[in-house]
Design a protein that fits this description.
3-stranded antiparallel sheet; elongated; Four Helix Bundle (Hemerythrin (Met), subunit A); Arc Repressor Mutant, subunit A; transcription
Length: about 230
């Protein structure tokens, strides 16, 4: 319990200029999503509140929001526990991501500028270099930047936020899916092809490429859940 609590406290910055209930929610959500609190671990309001020297109310409000997101669940006569991510959950998230990411790419076709295209090409070249150097963490971060630049080029700010929430939900599994060297090379090639399809304004091809890209990642994530 001490380790989990230490991580939660480290993630919680009460000096932020936002309502405490939001700070607690974001901190607890991040700690759970990153796998720092094990599946099935009981979250006791009083212990978390005492550790931060705050009332139990923002903890309770955060848990209610997390229950709606299905990150925690209430078990009668026991309390609130961290919920296991099931295969069904993962498949649903990937289906939603496919629809949203295709929408972002198609929208980017009409809005992306020559400078943005060049910036993304430079980013992909840097990603390839870091991958050859074996700097996996940097490659993972650069993959995230690629996605962000496509979302920015779509000029659909709410869409980017929605996809971001979904990506956070599976972050610890997604990172695992690209720690494999062969998968990283394939993902980099797919990113180049997705960009070219956006440049060519080829909607059918971008749909197929994004589906393959996500399906490959999904396969690895599902295997990880099995283990």
């Amino acid at each position: 319990m001490s380790e989990h609590m230490d991580e939660f406290v480290k993630n919680t910055d009460l000096s932020q200029n936002k309502p405490m209930r939001d700070v607690i929610y974001e901190s607890l959500r991040s700690t759970i999503i990153n796998g720092k609190i094990p599946v099935g671990e009981r979250i006791i309001e009083k212990e978390y509140a005492d550790r931060l020297n705050i009332s139990r109310t923002p903890i309770r409000e955060a848990l209610k929001r997390l229950e709606i997101e299905e990150l925690v669940e209430y078990i009668p006569r026991y309390g609130v526990v961290v919920k296991r991510i099931t295969k069904k959950d993962v498949i649903e998230v990937y289906k939603i991501r496919h629809s949203l990411e295709v929408l972002a790419a198609v929208s980017a076709m009409d809005n992306i500028t020559p400078q943005e295209i060049q910036d993304i090409k430079d980013l992909l070249d840097l990603t390839e270099l870091k991958n050859k150097e074996g700097k996996v963490e940097e490659v993972i971060a650069l993959f995230g930047k690629f996605n962000s630049k496509i979302y920015e080029a779509s000029r659909m700010n709410r869409l980017a936020s929605m996809i971001g929430k979904l990506n956070e939900y599976l972050q610890r599994f997604r990172n695992i899916s690209i720690t494999d060297e062969m998968r990283r090379k394939e993902a980099l090639m797919e990113h180049r092809e997705i960009l070219q399809s956006i440049i060519d304004k080829d909607k059918d091809r971008v749909d197929k490429l994004i589906k393959k890209h996500l399906d490959d990642s999904l396969e690895i994530v599902l295997k990880e859940i099995d283990e």
